[in-house]
Amino acid sequence: MPNLFVSLLSLLCLQKNSVLCIGEEQPKNCFTELQVLKGHFDIVRFLVQIDDFRCASAGDDGLVLVWNVETGERLQELRGHSQQITAITTFTCNNGLTSHTSLITASSDRSLSLWDPDTGNRVQTISDLQSSVKCLLVLERLCVWVSGGEELCVWNKDFQLQCHRQNHSDTGITALIELPKNCIAAAMDKEIVIYRLTYSTDSSLSVAEIRCLSDHQDRIRALINVNDGLFASGSHAGELILWDAIDWNILAYEHILWEESQACTQAEIRLAAPKPSEMSIQHLTTNGTHILAAVGSGLYVYSILTKTVVAYRKVAHDSNVLHTMLLSDSELMSCSEDGSVRMWEIQDLPLPAEPASPGLFGMWTFGRSNKQTGPPSKKVMDVPNIRTLELTGDLIGHSGAVQMFVSFRENGLVTCSTDHLLILWKNGERQSHLRSLALFQKLEENGGL
Amino acid sequence: MIGSPDVVAFTKEDEYGQTPPDPWALPDEFSIPLHPLVDSNPWAKTSYAKFTKDFILISEFSEQVGPQPLLTIPDDPKVCGTFDLNYFSLRIMSVDYQASFVGHPPGSGYPRLSFVEDSRVVLGDSKEGAFAYVHHLTLYDLEARGFVRPFCMAYVSADERKIMLQFQELSLRFSQASESLKAGNRRAFAKELQRKLRDLEYTHSVLQREEGLQREAGPQCMYSAHAVEKANELANVEKSIYEHRDLLRQISSYHRRPRRDPHVVSCQKCITECLSECEQLLDKYAKLANPFSYTAKGETGQKGQVDDEGDVKEGDEEEDDGVKRRSSYTPQLIKGKSAKCFDKRLKTLQELCDVTFYEATVELLKKTERSFRGDLCYLYTRRLDRALRRKQRVTNFLFEEDLGDDDDDEDEGGTLRPFCAVNHAVDNYTLLNPLPIVLGPEPLELDALEPPDPLDPASETSHTQGSELGLVESHLESSPSDQTLETQESSEETKGSFSSGKSGMDLAERQQNLASRKSEAPDPDSDLTPDPDHNTDLERESSSEEMETTAGEDEGDDTPVSLLEVVLELEASREDECEGFTDGPCDMEPESLVPLDTACCMAQEGFLYEASAPEAVQPCQTLVVNQEPHALLPLQDDYAVGSPCSESPAAGLELPVGHLGDAVSRTSAEDGSDCTMSASTGSDLGYGGVVTLRQRKKAGQGALKFVRQYPFAMQALWCLLSGRTLVVLGADEGRVRRLVAALALFVPAPGKCGDRVQAWLSCPFTLTDLQRWKLIGLQRVASPVGSSMLYSLSRYSRYISILDADQKTLRCPPYRGQLLANIADHRTYIRRGSTYFLHLQSTLCQLAAKAFLFTFTHHLHLPVSSTEGPEVVQGRRLCFLQEQLGLGEEDSQILLYLSQLITQQYLHPATGSSAAATCFSFNYTTSVLYKI
C-alpha cells in the first residue's frame, strides 16, 4: 500500500516536475537588477557582442539595434532591411594597429548589409540575391566571409563575390563552421558537406566540395567547433556525433535518449516516452572539454575526455531549451521557450553510497521524506562518475520565449525574447557600487552639493 | 468646570458648531453659557470684521457717480457679508494721491495725457475691522474727463499685520495686474483714437464739401450766420483732429518714458507689438498732415482699405473677413460738443481694457487672492517650509510634494516674469533683484538657521536693530486709527508725501541701488550708513510723474520721512546681505495656496472622490468659512451617498478643505463619484496618484485607517519603502482605489504626477509595469482575463508583494525590523488623519535625512586608503547601518533603496529625458503570507 502511494506520488511528481521551481530564495543568483530595453517591434532572435560594452540585437522587424550594456542606452538604430533578419555576425578588420568591428546582416528580403556600429551607417549592401541567406561565417584568417543558403557564396571584405557554389539540396545550408586547412563544414539537412577554399595562382578564390558526411539519421540542428581537432553535430533525432576536424572521421556517436528509452521499463517513464521533438538537439555549446547539449527541454553535459554524459537533467525547463552556455567548467546557463533563463551548477554527488539526491529529478518538492528514488536514478547510479546538475537560480522577466542570451561577465547578461524586449540583467551590488563611484565623482566635479 | 468653554472648544472640534442635543447635558439655566457666539471661531482674526475672509476689491472713481465698487475676488456675496463695499470704495478712492493732472498744461496747445505711476497705500478702518492694501491706477478713456479713469484695486483683510508684512509681495502682484490692465487699456485706447480720428476725418471731409458747395453757391452767403457756424465747426473739427493725433503720439510714446516703479515689468513682446501698432497708426495719420487735401470721401475709403480697414462703403469683401469686426466700422459724423454730455454711458472696465487682458488680469488677481489665503502665521510657516525644502533638492523628491515651479517661476531666484495676458513666450523675462519678503521680526529665525557670517560681525547687530526698527516701522505705518497715514500726512503736504506706497517703492528701489553699488564698490560700511545724497537722489527719483511738474513743493517731506528712511535702509541692507549670503529663504513666494488647516481634514470615506476633482477649480477657504455650520450639514448626506462603503459616517465626516461653498463641494463630490463609476478602464493614470499636499493630507486619514485596521500594515509599508512593488488586489474598485490612495503616501519618489502609482489596473501587468509602478491596484476578476492576471501575479511573485483587499492577506517577505514601528502601530493613539500625516512626514523626513547621510558619506562607499579592499568598505557600510543607525537587515534595505533613489536622482536629475531605461532592483527572498 505505501508502495502504491509512493509510486502514485512519483507519477504525479514526474508529471508535475515540469514545474521545476527553485523558489524565491536564490543566494547564488547575483542578478538582482534589471533593465528592460525596448525598441524592437517584433521577435528579437539574435544577439551579438560587438565589444566589451556593446551588443547588437536583431529580429523579425528587420531592425538592428546597438546597445550600451553598461548603461542600457540604445546607441544606434540600424534600419535598412525590410524583412526579418536571418543571420547576423560581427566582422573584425585588423589593419595593422587598429581593429574595427562591423556587423554583417542577412535578411529575408534577400539582401546582405555591412554596418558600422559606431556611426550607424550602412557601409555596404547587396540586394537581389537569388535566395535569402540563412547563415554567415567569417574567415578572418583569409579576410573573407561566407554566406550560406541555397547557395554557398564567398565574399571578400569589400563585399565582392569571390566564388559561389549552387547546392542541390532543398533545405539549403543551415549552419557553417570553419575547419582547419581552409576547409568549411556546412550542415545541409542530414548531411555535413566539407568544402575547401583554394587560392589559385592568379589569387582568385575557388571553392570545391570534397566530402559529404551523411551519418545522421535526421536533420542536423547544431554544428559547432569543439577545439582545433574536433567538431560536433547534433540532429533532430538526438544523435550527437563527434568528428575529427582533419580527416572528418566519426570519433564518437552518442544517441542521447536512446539508451534511456531502452532502459526505461517503468510505466510512468513510458508514459513520458520522448517524442521526437523532445529528443531533438536544439543547441550545442562547448568550452573545449565539455559539450553542453540542449535536448528537448533537457540539458546534457558530455565530456570529451571520457566520451560520456557526465551530468544531465532530463527536464530542465518547462519547454524546449533554445540556447545554452557553459560559463565555466561547472556553471552553465540555459534559456527556453518557457520564458525563463536558468543557471545550473554541476555538482558532485554527495556520497556514492547514499541514494541519489531527491532533487535530482525535480522530485524535491517531496523533501527528504521521499525515500524511494525514481527509476531513472537507478540508471544514473549505474553510470560511474555521473554528477548532478543543480539549479542555482533562474531569471524570470520575459513574457515570451527567451531566444538567446549573451553574457558580458561582470557587466551583466542580455536576454532577448519573442515578447519584443531585451532584458539587461545585472549584479545589483556591483551596479550600486558603480553608481556611488559616479556620485562621488560628480560631487567632486561640482565641487560639493 | 463642566461647561468650561475652553475645553469644549478644544475637544469637540469634530462636531464643532453642530451641537447635537445631548440628553445628558445640564439644563440651560444651570450651565455656564458657552462662548457668546457659538458659531464663530474664537481664533479667527476676522471675527469682528464684517467679512469672513480676505478679498480683493476693484473700485473706480466714476466721474458721474463717484466711488463705486466694481467687483470682488472671489466673486461671492458671502465673502463680503455685511461689509459695506460702497463705503469702503469711498474710503479707498479718497486716498488716491496721484491726483492726475488734467487739461491743458500751460504752454502746450493740446490736451495732455497724464502718465501717472501707480500708487500704493495701506489704510485701515478700525470701525469696519478692515485693512487694505490699496493700489491706484489710471486708465485712459477718450470720453472721460481728462481722458483718465481712476481705478483702484484693494486687498482687504482684517489682519493689518498681514498686509503690512506682505506689503512688498502684494505690491508686486498688484503691479503685475495693473501693468496687464494698462497694457490692454493702451491698446484699446489706441483703437478708440483711431476710430475717433476716422470719424473726425469723415466729418471734416463732409463739412468741407458742404462749405465748398456754399462757396460755389455764391459769395453773398459767405458771411451768413450759417456759414460762420459751418466754418467754426470745421475749425473745431480740425483742431480736434490735431488734438487726437497728438494723443495718439503721446500714447505711442508711453513706453519710451522711463519708469520709476521698480515693480513694473512688462512683457517686452506686448510692448513692441503695441508700439508698432501705434506707430503704424501714427504713420497712417501723419500722412494726413494736411487733412484739407482730402476732399473726396472715396479717397478716405481707399486709404482705409490700404490699411486693412476695408471701408464699408465699397466693402463687399468684408463678409469673408468677419473676424475683423472692427473693419466693418462706419465712420460717423461727429456732433460739435456732444461728447461732454453728462448722461453718456461710461465704458466698463472690460471695455476699457482689451477683453483678453481683462480676463487674464482677473485670473491673476484670483491667483493672488488664493496665494494670500490663510493667516500670517500660516503663510509664514509655509514659506519657511518651502524655503527649507528648496535647499534640499537632493532629497525632497522622495517624500515631499512637488514644489510646483512650473507656473510659479516668478518666485524663484528673483526672476520676475512679466505677467502677459496673451501668453507671449516666457523667455522674455528680465532678472530683477530678488524681492525681499517683509516678515517683520520673523526673518530672524530664518537667519538663525544659517551659520553666522564670520566676515560681518555687524550683521547680527544690524539684524536686531533692523528688526526692532522694523517693528517701530510697522507701528508707525499701521496705526490702527481710523485715519490713513495718507490723510495724516496730507494735512501738511498734499502730494507725493510720505506714504507707505512710496516707501515700498523706495525700499525696493534702494535695494537695487544698494546691490548695484555693492557690486561696484564693495564697501561694507556704505550700506549701513545712509548716504544723504543718495537719499535725496532717490527721493527725487521715486516721486511720481506729477511731481516733476510740482517739483518745487516737496522739500517738506524730508523730515518726517528720515527716520523711516533709515529703517528701510537698514532693513534693505540687511535683506541684501541675507540674500547675498544665503540666497535662500528670502526669495520665495507662495504659489497657489493650499491651506493646511489641521482642524479640517477630509472626510474619511469621501476623500477619494474628493481628490478626483481637478485641483485648479478648488479654491480654498479659511478656517472661518470651513467651520461654518451651514456648510457642514448638507455635505454629510453627500458623502454618505458618494462613498459606497462608508462605515462610520458620523466619525469620518469632516468638512473638506477648500471649497467655496457647500454647493461647490457637493457638485465636486458628485462629480467625483460619477467619475468613479465610469472610470473603470483602469488606464487613467494619476487618478489615484497622490500629488498635491492637499491630497496627501487627505490620504493621511486613509493611511491611518489602514494602519489601525491591518496588523500587517508594517510589512506592507516596509515593502513600499524598500522598493518592492505592492499590488493591491481586490474586486471592489472603490476599496482598492482608496487603499492605493492611502498607501501612495509611502511610495518614495512618487514622481511629479504620482506616476509611480497605478490606482486601478484591470489587465494583466508585465515586467515593464513593475518597473514603472511601485504601487498597483489590480482588479480581481473571475474570467479568463482573471486567470491570466493570476498567472502574471504568480509569475512575477518574486518581484512583488500582494495585498489582498478582499481576503485581507498580505504576501511579502518577512519583516522583523523596528524602524517602522512608530508609523505602523495599529494601537496608535493618533486619531486624526492630518495628525497622522504630519507624524508620518516627520518620520519619512528623518528617513530621508538618514539616507542622505548614508549616500553622501564618502568612506561608506569608497576606500579611505589604497590598501583597503572592497570588503573593508563593505564592512564599514554594514557597521554604519547596524551600529550607528541601529538598523537591522530589513531596515537597512529601506535605507539602501532610498539611497539608490537619491543617487539616481543626483546622477540623472531628469530621469525621463535620459535614453537609458530605469533600473529595477530586487532581491531573492522568500515570501510569507500574513493574515489578519
From TrEMBL, chain A:
The keyword Repeat applies. WD repeats lie at residues 56-77, 103-125. Keywords: Repeat, Signal, WD repeat. GO terms for biological process: regulation of autophagy. The keyword Repeat applies. SMART domains: WD40 (SM00320). One of its GO terms (cellular component) is lysosomal membrane. Residues 1-21 form the signal peptide. It comes from the Eukaryota. PANTHER family: WD REPEAT-CONTAINING PROTEIN 41, WDR41-RELATED. This is WD repeat domain 41. It comes from Sander lucioperca (Pike-perch).
Automatic annotation (TrEMBL), chain B:
GO terms for biological process: autophagy. GO terms for molecular function: GTPase activator activity; guanyl-nucleotide exchange factor activity. Its main location: cytoplasm. It is found in: Cytoplasm. The keyword Cytoplasm applies. GO terms for cellular component: cytoplasm; guanyl-nucleotide exchange factor complex. Residues 297-329, 444-561 are annotated as: Disordered. Residues 307-321, 544-558 have a biased composition (Acidic residues). Keywords: Autophagy, Cytoplasm, Guanine-nucleotide releasing factor. Signal peptide: none annotated. Residues 531-543 have a biased composition (Basic and acidic residues). Belongs to the SMCR8 family. PANTHER family: GUANINE NUCLEOTIDE EXCHANGE PROTEIN SMCR8, SMITH-MAGENIS SYNDROME REGION GENE 8 PROTEIN. This is Smith-Magenis syndrome chromosome region, candidate 8a. It comes from Sander lucioperca.
